[in-house]
Design goal:
Layout (H helix, E strand, L loop, with lengths): L3 E2 L4 E2 L9 E2 L4 E2 L4 E2 L4 E2 L4 E2 L4 E2 L4 E2 L4 E2 L3 E3 L4 E2 L4 E2 L17 E3 L4 E2 L4 E2 L4 E2 L4 E2 L4 E2 L7 E5 L2 E7 L5 E2 L4 H8 L1
Parallel strand pairs: 1-3, 2-4, 3-6, 4-7, 5-8, 6-9, 7-10, 8-11, 9-12, 11-14, 12-15, 13-16, 14-17, 15-18, 16-19, 18-20
Antiparallel strand pairs: 20-21, 21-22
């Protein structure tokens, strides 16, 4: 099995894993790295300095800018917006862009905005339309503008209230 790339896409990278599917009108630049078993939906842009792990889903209308690191099993919903420069100026480029890290198994719902330099922890969930301005710990649910900690979530996706976290941590031991 090889990767599937719809001919209406502009895919310049040769580093795309087996079983990955790239749909129409995507642009993937030459140095991008994409793992196995991913689903890259229509109208997605992936810049050069982007690394995407295995089994990642990227829904339509997402742009992945230089500096983004996406670990395995991550879900990025439609029209999620990433930034990579906290002080952008036209025609002025930093020597390097801030690294934004999406840890294994995290999910970002539609239309959320993720600021440059943020790390979203393993299995965390970002609610639709949220604006994430700081690091998000593992197994937490955040939403709002700016996004705030609202609940906790297990690795399997069961949402717990803030009070439920003590019981969950006891069960892990």
């Amino acid at each position: 099995m090889t990767c599937f790339i719809l001919e209406k896409s502009d895919v310049q990278s040769l580093r795309i894993g087996e079983g990955t599917r790239v749909w129409q009108y995507c642009v993937i630049l030459e140095e991008a790295i994409i793992g196995c078993g991913c689903n890259i939906c229509a109208h997605v842009l992936v810049e050069n300095d982007v690394v995407i792990g295995d089994n990642v889903t990227i829904k339509s209308g997402v742009q992945l800018w230089d500096g983004l690191r996406v670990e395995d099993d991550v879900f990025i919903g439609p029209n999620v917006t990433f930034t990579n420069d906290l002080f952008p100026r036209s025609k002025h480029y930093p020597d390097s862009f801030q690294k934004t890290i999406l840890k294994k198994g995290c999910s970002i719902e539609a239309n959320a905005t993720i600021l440059a330099g943020v790390t979203i922890g393993e299995h965390a969930l970002i609610g639709a339309g949220s604006v994430v301005t700081k690091d998000v710990p593992a197994n937490t649910v955040w939403y709002g503008n700016p996004a705030k900690l609202m609940k906790y979530i297990t690795n399997e996706g069961k949402v717990l209230s803030k009070q439920g976290i003590n019981t969950y941590r006891l069960l892990e031991c």
